[in-house]
Amino acid sequence: MSQSYSPSMTLRTFALMACMVVVLAGIKAAGSIVVPFVLSVFIAVICTPAIAAMTRYRLPRWLAVLLLMALIVLAGLWLASVVGGSINEFSKQLPVYRAQLVEQFSWVLDKLQQFNIQISKEKVLAYFDPGMALSLTTNTLSSVGNVMANLLLIVLTIVFMLFEAESLPRKLHMALDDPDMRLSQIDRFLHSVNQYMVIKTLVSLATGAIVGIGLWLMGVDYPLLWAVVAFLFNYIPNIGSIIAALPAVLLAFVQLGPTGAGGVVLLYVAVNMVMGNFVEPRFMGRGLGLSTLVVFLSLIFWGWLLGSVGMLLSVPLTMIVKIALESGEGSRKLAVLLADDASAFALNSVENGADAATANDAAKDKKEI
Fold first, then answer.
1. Transmembrane residues, as ranges (predicted)?
2. Is the dihedral of CA 175, 179, 181, 187 positive or negative?
3. Is 339 helix (H, G, I), strand (E, B) or coil?
4. In the chain, pLDDT over 90 holds for what percent of residues?
5. What local confidence, expressed as pLDDT, does residue 281 receive?
6. Whole-angstrom Cα distance, residue 311 to residue 299?
7. 24-38, 167-181, 210-224, 345-359: which has the minimum mean pLDDT?
8. Is residue 259 over pLDDT 70?
9. Among 256, 252, 254, CA closest to 97
10. What is the mean pLDDT of residues 318-340?
């Protein structure tokens, strides 16, 4: 007599974790292919509302896609040339900035010497070197630039995605076993990701524009470079604005002294407070629905898995995972672990409501029998 064997929960958990390790290792090994594809997907998501707006004015879809792609390519090439020129010019001016930095700190060194505290100029340059402060920023920009080296592949992928975007939801609905049940979940999933990416991009553009104009009015060198850095790093949660502000603040200290550096700090703090606490939540409703710890850990995880592009897209990628987990009955409990308090309570209420409805239906059927 054969006896059926059902694996235990522990064995299934270990098997699932082993599968995840294999999948993640494969993604990391194929990073040169995966990263441009992921970047193409998110750029296509951002472009979808613009394509829909142009087609509403009876512009052919193929023409709208080509016009938008031409605009994006021209803007990208222009920004790449300007940013590259600014970085090269900044590198040439580094000796001058180092000398100015020592002059700015000379009065501090004199005061310390009065208290018999000897600090050499080399120590000052070691801890407050403008080149060191810019290294993290330039490394991130270089990593993004390396991905954008496959510009033709990315553009072609975006074009084909935009042509297929109109029929993709219908194909997903038809491919599912129970399309009526999954219809609202897929629509909510696509709408949430699209809404977040568009709003985040617009907020990042506004942040970069305000920072660039403010630094230009203050007289800080290379305001366009710092505006692009502020735009890109605004996608990185928690620490992105700090990383973006460091090189600009240090350069302002070298050029304008402590007062000018304080003004730049106030500019960055004011812009990020207004955009992060008022503008972004105003258009995103109740917010991301992710806990602060999950946002920070996702930054580390996606940065390790996909590099700098993963850091820039860490929140959207984590939101996709969370929304996908919310869509399934069995995985909704995992989505609760990723959510903040309010979202976790809402998800738990939905699940309890679904369980109560199921119990009521079962009791009603039993009574009829």
1. 9-27, 33-55, 62-87, 144-163, 197-218, 224-254, 261-279, 299-325
2. positive
3. strand
4. 7
5. 75
6. 5
7. 345-359
8. yes
9. 254
10. 72
* Contact criterion met (CB below 8 Å) for 197 and 42: yes
Block residue for tokens 């630039």: 145
Integer Cα distance of 230 and 26 in angstroms: 32
Is residue 117 a contact partner of residue 285, using CB atoms and an 8 Å limit? no
- HEC profile of 95-111: HHHHHHHHHHHHHHHHH
Q: Which of 26-30, 141-145, 237-241, 321-325 is predicted most confidently? A: 26-30
φ, ψ of residue 339 to 5 degrees: the values are -85, 160
pTM of the model: 0.73
Which residues lie closer than 8 Å to 43 by C-beta, 6 or more apart? Answer: 72, 154, 158
Measured distance CA(70)–CA(68) in Å, rounded: 5
> Quick one: CA torsion of 307, 311, 315, 316, rounded to 10 degrees?
-50
